[in-house]
Design goal:
The complex is a heterodimer of chains A (223) and B (490). Chain A has 223 residues and is of the alpha+beta class. Chain A is 16% helix and 56% strand. Chain A contains 4 helices and 8 strands; from the N terminus they run ααβαββββββαβ. An 8-stranded antiparallel beta barrel of chain A has the order 1-2-3-4-5-6-7-8. In chain A, strand 6 and strand 7 form a beta hairpin. The longest helix of chain A is centred in the first third of the chain and has 18 residues. Chain B is 26% helix and 17% strand. Chain B is elongated, with a radius of gyration of 29 Å. Classes of the chains: A alpha+beta (223), B alpha/beta (490). At the A-B interface, helix 3, strand 3, strand 4, strand 5 and helix 4 of A face helix 4, helix 12 and helix 13 of B.
């Protein structure tokens, strides 16, 4: 077994595969002479405060959750950057019953997995030789949502994908020529990501947005 | 020749050392079949697509050589390591702790020509199907999705008490002597009573008699015993029939007198003659006291399978008191649809009380039973049986007092120590389904009467006209959906 099998590649999300292909093309373009094109990859970890505060607190006991992920992108000569990022939130809570705002915990372990995939375009301030470069941008996101519980049958497991948008800003500090760190804040909105299913906690609290505010730290490799 | 020792997958040399150490470190303790990590994986299966992470079952085609088996396994992605063991002669269980995605592994292996099939090691959920012999007759339990609810909640707990405001339940094995008129003379007659063998005595509280005497609660009518059976009859005990909240406790409160209650009272006062078999009844004073007594005794659920056409503020106030003390109340709406469909009380009060429900009856086809009253106060329906829909098979079956032993038209010397499978119909039998589900909900964590009502209503299966209607209320109770509650998005 000297190389990954086709099946292993097939397990990667299609969008990630497409992103890798785009990066590969850009890298090859750089090699061909597009000297001012900068390419980077990154991984990050942070915390999201979800907009649907009551719903998340009911199920998880907190509306804040750990998120982690990574991605990559390019910076065009005009300081315009395009990034793609995949992140993940996964947390165990419990199923509940909400009546007139009162939350009754049922002791049934409930697991929610949210996998946002984001495309961000923005502007990076300063020059490439600057140590600190602020940036800001916005874009579109797709949220893969999965929910199951310890007793769920196949029919009772829930999966769906929602479209949202986001705005973000931060600053990157260059540590070495090819390594940087960044702090970033992001606000996202995923209208109708919750509260669409009758009998859900989101419906009970009339909370429909799956987005939130995220603060994260990034390690950036490349320029 | 097949491998009989654990297979090493992936990068052989590295994996071999890892596997050797893991096998040593993770061997199950003596007497146990799984290691802690394997147990953890089993638990994780519920949130992992229903299969044990990293466990795949593989069947090789007949006659596949060992070398070809290894070739097929080598198609797993780079770095995969793990162990395997044979199950029987032809199925290999592969464990890949580094790669939990057994569905993908099975898909990869399933495409290899040497492999007949490959599948994740799924974990099945038990679907409790009680072994009570008469369970197969109890269509009513399946109709409300109860077996699937029992997978989550095993019929409440003994800490949850259901008060039964009815004709009583035998709470003692006793043979009191009563003075009985036999037609020509009085006779001192020892009348035997026995506990229902399908109702565990440990779950039956002493209760209280509000209409007959100060002695132990005894049922001389049969109605209370039948209703109690639907609520919490012993289940999965290889005897008779099943009940809804089969681990809950029962607080029997006798508020109704039947023919024999009257007859024995008459005899005790030296009054010759026979009572009218139709003179049975349940006075408001007894009902109201019993409701309050139930609440004061800490009963979380009260079942009232009796009704009448006259409004009764006494009962209304008692209901409000009980709900304010934390008791949920299920009440039958009445069986008089063909007699003018009167509004019956106390069920009619339920519409104004969050935490009390008026319960109508459906047949096994999920249609309103012909006798079941309708009206804007109907909030929910549950199985009540209907002879016109399937004959005897369409009735509700429980293990109850044998009426052949105390039928006033044929028996002079009754006994209440014989039980038999009995089939019946009525909204009296619909209400205890709701009481039982309410007990399960309380045990699951919904401790407010209003919330219990809301949970039952919101998870009901809508029947009839879309939305709430006067025939079915919010619809047919769905025990599984009610007990499972709400998730974040669904």
């Amino acid at each position: 077994m000297s190389a990954p099998s086709l099946s292993a590649i097939a397990r990667l999300p299609r969008r990630v595969g497409a992103l890798l292909a785009v990066i590969a093309v850009l890298l090859s373009a750089r090699g061909a002479g597009a000297q001012s094109l900068e390419v980077h990859g990154f991984f990050d970890v942070g915390a999201t405060k979800f907009t649907a505060t009551d719903s998340f607190e009911a199920v998880f006991g907190s509306s804040v959750g750990l998120v982690y992920g990574g991605g990559g992108g390019v910076v065009l000569p005009q300081n315009i950057f395009i990034d793609a990022r995949a992140t993940r939130f996964k947390k165990d809570g419990q199923r509940v019953f909400v009546n007139d705002g009162d939350v009754f915990e049922l002791g049934i372990t409930n697991t929610v997995t949210i996998t946002p995939f984001e495309i961000t375009g923005g502007y990076r301030f300063g020059r490439s030789r600057d140590t600190v470069r602020p940036y800001a941008g916005g874009g579109v996101s797709w949220y893969r949502y999965e929910e199951t519980d310890q007793f769920a049958t196949a029919d009772e497991r829930f999966k769906d994908t929602y479209t949202g948008f986001h705005l973000l800003g931060g600053a990157q500090i260059r540590v070495t020529m090819w390594l940087g760190i960044a702090g970033e804040a992001e606000w996202s909105s995923v209208p109708n990501g919750l509260g669409q299913q009758p009998g859900s906690v989101g419906t009970a609290f009339d909370e429909t947005d799956l987005g939130g505010t995220t603060f994260r730290a990034k390690v950036v490799i490349g320029r | 020749m097949r491998h009989r020792a654990p297979l090493i997958l992936g990068l052989a040399a590295l994996a071999a050392s890892l596997v050797a150490s893991r096998l040593h470190a993770q061997s199950p303790a003596p007497g146990f079949l799984r290691t802690p990590s394997q147990l953890r994986a089993l638990v994780d299966a519920s949130t992992n697509g229903g299969y044990i992470p990293g466990e795949t079952l593989v069947k090789f085609r007949e006659g596949t050589a060992s070398a070809d088996q290894s070739r097929a396994l080598s198609t797993l992605r780079r770095g995969t390591s793990g162990t395997s063991r044979w199950i029987g002669n032809d199925v290999l269980l592969i464990s890949t702790p580094d790669d939990g995605d057994a569905a993908a592994i099975a898909a990869t292996l399933g495409r290899q020509p040497e492999i007949e099939w490959a599948q994740p090691n799924y974990v099945r959920k038990r679907k409790l199907r009680p072994n009570d012999p008469a369970y197969s007759l109890q269509w009513n339990l399946n109709l409300i999705n109860l077996p699937a609810a029992w997978d989550i909640n095993h019929g409440a707990t003994a800490n949850v008490t259901v008060a039964l405001v009815d004709s009583g339940v035998n709470t003692a094995a006793t043979t009191p002597t009563f003075r009985v008129w036999t037609g020509q003379a009085f006779e001192n007659l020892a009348i035997p009573f026995a506990l229902n063998p399908d109702l565990a005595s440990s779950r039956i509280k002493a209760g209280r008699d509000f209409v007959f005497w100060n002695g132990p609660v005894l049922d001389m009518d049969g109605h209370g015993t039948f209703v109690a059976g639907t609520i919490l009859q012993e289940t999965n005990n290889n005897l008779a029939a099943a009940g809804v909240a089969y681990q809950a406790s029962l607080l029997p409160l006798k508020v109704c007198y039947g023919y024999w209650d009257l007859q024995l009272l008459l005899g005790s006062f030296n009054q010759p003659g026979f009572a009218d078999p139709d003179d049975a009844g349940c006075p408001d004073d007894a009902i109201g006291q019993a409701i309050r007594f139930a609440a004061d005794s800490g009963a979380q659920v009260i079942n009232i399978s009796l009704s009448g056409p006259a409004a009764a503020p006494f009962l209304r106030d008692a209901l409000n008191y009980a709900v304010s003390r934390g008791s949920f109340v299920a009440m039958a709406v009445g069986n008089e649809f063909d007699e003018g469909n009167p509004i019956e009380y106390p069920a009619a009060y339920a519409a104004q009380i969050d935490g009390a429900m008026a319960v109508g009856a459906v047949n096994r086809s999920s249609k309103r039973a012909g006798y079941s009253n309708t009206g804007s106060h109907v909030e929910i329906v549950a199985p009540g049986g209907d002879f016109s829909d399937g004959g005897l098979a369409g009735l509700v079956t429980q293990y109850a007092l044998d009426p052949g032993q105390y039928d006033p038209t044929t028996v002079l010397r009754p006994r209440f120590d014989r039980y038999t499978l009995l089939a019946a119909e009525g909204t009296s039998l619909a209400a205890p389904h709701i009481a039982g589900v309410a007990a399960m909900l309380y045990a699951q964590g919904i401790t407010s009467p209003a919330a219990i009502e809301a949970a039952i209503e919101r998870t009901a299966t809508d029947l009839g006209t879309a939305g709430r209607d006067s025939e079915y209320g919010f619809g047919l109770v769905n025990a599984r959906a009610a007990v499972r509650g709400q998730g974040l998005a669904k």
